[in-house]
């Protein structure tokens, strides 16, 4: 199943090297930096979980197995906040 | 400028007690349908409708000093909000054709700092309320202040400013002449500096999401903006994103003392000259 940002559920902007995302449902803000920002930007609706991890591993020159737990944690947080579709 | 001048031009006349069948009691205001109605506790009435300016009803025996405080405070801010301006709780100076604004809670020293910078040659841009023009899609343009500089006696001494007439209305403040004069035309808003009390004098740039957090403000002008513009979450976010993306931000910490004021004044003057370059 492909993963994507939950359309219509958020608004976002980039400031300096951070992405600031706001849930339109709760009004909560999320500041995404570093790997969280990279994962968020990679959620383009073209990858499933495995493809997302492969793409990020290539970007960060890391082993897919090494980054998978962090990616899963962040995807779970996005899902809980209602910002992820396809999870 | 012309829009704001037209919509805030005032005259005396009868002010309605209600809008759309809703009576506004003394000490309250109502903003609806592009109109603004306020009755003060003492019985001053203020009314604005599009294209009609502001009508003021003065009660018998009222303190005349109070009239201008309401007019230049919440009423002016409300009318500005209804006409596409965002009020920020800030005093500001001009530097190199741009505006550097100082914000913080009441008593943080915004006016005193702006007045002190006048002694160093920076003209006053506004005192207490900074209006940002949201019509322009290019940069953020700030409107020159409509209020006279007001300072408490200890602030007058700190800033080296000369007292003029007392403000009255039990404020304890005096009107003061800006040492380097003031600015009469709109200018780009370049910087927003957050004033804080602290043990040492410091200037620290604010970056990223912290800019969003810093733009949270519980000043009455923000309440008026929400009542007048009724922005949704997405609109408020977009507005903050615009401010955060286009205006440099920094925090200024300093001890609240005469020595702390002098040190912070020198530091701020150096920094805002850098902004201007």
Notable features of this structure?
heterodimer; A: 87 residues; alpha+beta; Arc Repressor Mutant, subunit A; two-stranded antiparallel sheet; 3 helices; 5 strands; 23% strand; globular; B: 277 residues; five-stranded mixed sheet; five-stranded mixed beta barrel; 8 helices
Explain briefly what this protein structure is.
The complex is a heterodimer of chains A (87) and B (277). With 87 residues, chain A is of the alpha+beta class. Chain A has helices at 34-42, 49-60, 64-80, and strands at 4-5, 10-15, 18-23, 29-32, 84-85.
Description:
The complex is a heterodimer of chains A (87) and B (277). The mean pLDDT of chain A is 93. By secondary structure, chain A is α+β, with helices and mostly antiparallel strands. Chain A contains three helices and five strands, in the order ββββαααβ. By secondary structure, chain B is of the alpha+beta class. Helices cover 33% and strands 31% of the residues of chain B. In chain B, helix 2 packs across helix 6 and helix 3 runs parallel beside helix 4 (153-159). Chain B is globular, with a radius of gyration of 19 Å. Classes of the chains: A alpha+beta (87), B alpha+beta (277). At the A-B interface, strand 2 and strand 3 of A face helix 5 and helix 7 of B.
């Amino acid at each position: 199943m492909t993963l994507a940002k939950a359309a219509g559920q958020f608004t976002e902007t980039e400031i300096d090297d951070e992405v600031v995302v706001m849930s339109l449902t709760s009004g909560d803000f999320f500041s995404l930096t570093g790997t969280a920002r990279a994962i968020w930007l990679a959620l383009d609706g073209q990858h499933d979980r495995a493809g997302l991890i492969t793409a990020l591993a290539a970007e960060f020159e890391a082993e897919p197995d090494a980054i998978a737990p962090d990616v899963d944690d962040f995807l779970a947080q996005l899902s809980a906040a209602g910002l992820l579709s396809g999870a | 400028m012309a829009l704001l001048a037209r919509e805030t031009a005032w005259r005396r006349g009868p002010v309605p007690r209600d809008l759309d069948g809703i009576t506004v009691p003394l000490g309250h205001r109502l903003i609806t349908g592009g109109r603004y109605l306020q009755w003060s506790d003492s019985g001053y009435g203020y009314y604005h409708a599009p294209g009609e300016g502001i009508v003021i009803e003065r009660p018998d025996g009222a303190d005349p000093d109070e009239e201008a405080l309401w007019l230049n405070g919440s009423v002016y801010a409300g009318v500005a909000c209804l006409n596409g301006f965002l009020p920020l709780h800030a005093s500001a100076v001009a530097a190199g054709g741009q505006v550097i604004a100082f914000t913080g809670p009441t008593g943080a020293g915004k006016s005193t700092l702006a007045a002190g910078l006048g002694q160093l040659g920076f003209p006053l841009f506004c005192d207490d309320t900074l209006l940002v023009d949201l019509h322009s899609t290019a940069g953020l343009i700030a409107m020159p202040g409509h209020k006279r500089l007001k300072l408490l006696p200890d602030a007058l001494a700190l800033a080296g400013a000369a007292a003029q007439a007392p403000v009255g209305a039990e404020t304890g403040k005096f009107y003061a002449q800006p040492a380097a004069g003031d600015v009469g035309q709109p200018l780009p808003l370049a910087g927003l500096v957050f004033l804080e009390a602290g043990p040492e004098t410091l200037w620290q740039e604010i970056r990223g999401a912290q800019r969003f957090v810093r733009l949270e403000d519980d000043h009455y002008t923000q309440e008026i903006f929400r009542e007048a513009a009724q922005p949704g979450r997405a609109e408020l976010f977009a507005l903050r994103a615009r401010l955060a993306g286009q205006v440099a931000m920094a925090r200024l910490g300093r001890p609240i003392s005469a020595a702390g004021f002098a040190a912070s004044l020198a530091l701020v003057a150096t920094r805002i000259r850098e902004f201007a370059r």
